[in-house]
Amino acid sequence: MLDRLRHFIIDVISPEAPDHRSFDETGCKLAATALFIHVISLDGEPSDVEIRKLHELIETRFGLDPGTANKLITSATLAEGEAVDLYQFTSVLMRSLTDEDRLRIVEMMWELVYADGRVSEFEENVVWRAADLLAISSRDRIELKHRVGSKSSAPDPAT
Questions:
Q1: Where is the Co-chaperone DjlA N-terminal domain (predicted)?
Q2: Measuring CA to CA, which residue among 107, 117, 104 is closest to residue 152?
């Protein structure tokens, strides 16, 4: 577990990042999962619904078995707990992912925001900041929010 965290930190501070890495690489998965942990932890202790949704997203979207997903979530929780800001995670994703993959990350963040049936201003603000750091336009961010929100029964604080 410490090796993964060490590799993640090296990846974050490394000035020589490869031009393009696949979305399946551990560094990207760890960075994205740390963002997800941050989102579900904003309004206190993550609810059971949020934790189940996180596991579902990690397993289905990242193609991981439950055991590997648990290990990734544990590592990401450590990384998120030591993080100073979102940039250390979004910078890894910016260097590594395509525009489409970054849109998927923001969509997954919205799915986690809507998972517990409550959308707080803090959650909305974090998704806005992360989307901005991931070079996702306001229009795309809002479109993703409405798309995910229309599938959910959570009230939208902006309306």
A1: 30-145
A2: 117
